Every structure is written in C-alpha cells, then in structure tokens.
Amino acid sequence: MSNLAASSHPARPAIAWIGLGIMGSPMSENLIKAGYSVTGFTLEKDKLERLAAAGGTAAGSIAEAVKDADVIVTMVPASPQVEAIAYGENGILENAKPGALIIDMSSITPQTSVDLAKAAKDKGIRVIDAPVSGGEAGAIEAVLSIMVGGEQADFDEAKPLLDALGKTIVLCGPHGSGQTVKAANQLIVAVNIQACAEAVVFLEKSGVDLTAALDVLNGGLAGSTVLTRKKDNFLNRDFKPGFRIDLHHKDMGIVTDAARNVGAALPVGGVVAQLVASLRAQGDGGLDHSALLRGVERLSGQQV
Predict the structure, then answer these.
(1) What pTM does this model have?
(2) What's the CA gap between 275 and 281, in Å, rounded?
(3) CA gap 267, 61 in Å, rounded
(4) CA 216 to CA 220: how far, in whole Å?
(5) Buried b (16+ CB within 10 A) or exposed e, 32-53
(6) Which has the least CB within 10 A, 51, 68, 95, 101?
(7) What's the rounded Cα separation, in Å, for the pair 68 and 15?
C-alpha cells in the first residue's frame, strides 16, 4: 500500500487488551486480523506468548499495557477482577492517559459498571460496558452479540472496533445497561439449557433415537441457538468448557440479585440458579454449562 493510500485511512486507535482467557484470546486476535495494534496483559504466560505469536505485543504489567493506549479493552471473569485491574496504583485508571476509552467486556454487576464509569470520569477517562454473548465459538468466529451501556458518542467511537468482534452490537442505555441485558441473556440461556437437558434425559429414557429427535425439535418452535450450539455436547457428553458452570453460577447470582433490587420475580430462573449452584457443589464447576445435563441425570437416578 502506498503512503498516499495509507494516509487516506484514519489512524486506528492503539489498543490495550487486559484478560486473555477463553474469550479474550480469540477476540484480541480478531482485532489484530482487522489491522489494530494490540498490546496485551494477562496472568498466564502462555496466553501472552499466544498473543505475541498472533502479531500482538505482550506487556509485563497493566501499567505498561495501558500507558500509550487510546482504547483499553478488559475481559476478565467477574466484578472483583474488574475492580482489581481498574483501581489502585498499578491499575488502569492510574496509568491510562486522559481521554482514553475503556471498553469493559467482562460480565459483572450493573452497579460495578456504574461505579467504574464514575471513578473514571474523575480521571478524564471514558467507559462503556460491553458484555458479550455467543461463547467461545462466537468469539472465534467474530459473531458475538455485544450489549453496550454508556454514552452515545463513546459507543459511536467504539463501534468500528466492536464490529471486528461481533455481529449484533446495540447500545442499550446508560452505564450498566449492557450488564443488565447480559444478565437477562444469561437467565434465558441457563433456563434454555436446563429445558434441553431435561428433554434429552426424557428422550433417552424413552428409547428414542436422540440424534433424530434433536434434529426435528431444532427445526420447529423448540429450536434455539442454544440447542444448535450445544446439541453435540449433549449427544457426545462432551463438556469441555466453552462457558464454565462456575461463570454461569456467578451470572445467575448477578441476575437474581439485580432482579430482586428492581422487584422482578424470577420463579423459574431462581430454580435454575439453584440447579447451577448444585452442579458446582458436586464438583462440575469447571465443565461447560451444557453439563446441566449431568444434574438432570443424577436426579433421574443415573450414574454420571
């Protein structure tokens, strides 16, 4: 590309990426593929090596990663981790330059997002909450749904970057709104997986061809993205984590707590939250959330 051609494109913002787990690694790599310069930090050395191999730059600390960044993307497991990387002398807010934009893509409590935005504003740093749905496959394929909370201008600035990560990207309202919509998403997904798991055990105990049954069910009103994505997990009892029970347990806590705060009843969601919690208590927290099937099998008297 000639210098003239290159100069006709506005310079892409420099990206810092904090958190390179199951979701963060493929997402950061999609930004690199889209032409962004990405400097990353995470606690696992092998994940930093993976980022460098993909064309990114590995940083030795949060401070080093964020100091020159225009945009800082965070993708960590829960509210305590977001607070740990954001606050304190070694955290993002103390080391990012004024005017930087934080895009927090973690799934956390709406209140944590509101508090972060307020603390960042005092430092001249902008924040949007942008949790995602679509799991590991959605991250790899760059087809995530991204629900955003924050200011319109900041959303507009972030949109080209988010377009490299997902397919459905929507501003849902002020700070915390993205997290509220994500909580609702996790409620729907957990209840859907539980219903599918119950159907699988019912079908198998009835002696029906499970592959055929799930194919025809998925072609009608009972069909869903959950069933499409998780059908093979059910059929093969393959519970390698795309999204761990531990994390869905955290999310069910977020949605039940947030719903109680606003006075919304979640009668079925409350039951499924307990089923997720019981699966975790039985030692299945590290498995994919499709392992809710194991809970139904246990309740139905099967050895798992």
Answers:
(1) 0.92
(2) 10
(3) 44
(4) 7
(5) beeebbbbbbbeeeebbebbee
(6) 68
(7) 9
Residues 274 and 253 sit within 8 Å (Cβ to Cβ): no
- Active-site residue flag, 167: no
* C-beta of residue 110 within 8 angstroms of C-beta of residue 179: yes
- Nearest 5°: the CA angle 291, 295, 297 is 100
The amino acid occupying position 257 is: D
- What's the pLDDT tens digit per position in 98-122? 999 999 999 999 999 999 999 999 9
**pLDDT tens digits, one per residue of 147-190:** 999 999 999 999 999 999 999 999 999 999 999 999 999 999 99
CA distance 33 to 30: 5
Q: How far is it, in rounded angstroms, from Cα 164 to Cα 133?
A: 15
Among residues 67, 97, 167, 182, which one is catalytic? Answer: 182
For residue 117, CA distances in Å to 7, 14, 89, 242 come to 34, 21, 18, 29
Query: Are 200 and 176 contacting, i.e. CB atoms less than 8 angstroms apart?
Result: no
Cβ contact 187:266 at 8 Å: yes
Which distant-in-sequence residues (6+ apart) come within 8 Å of 303 by Cβ?
none
Cα–Cα distance, 162 to 263 (Å, whole number): 33
Using an 8 Å Cβ cutoff, are 108 and 179 in contact?
Answer: yes
Give the separation between CA 47 and CA 128, rounded to whole angstroms. Answer: 25
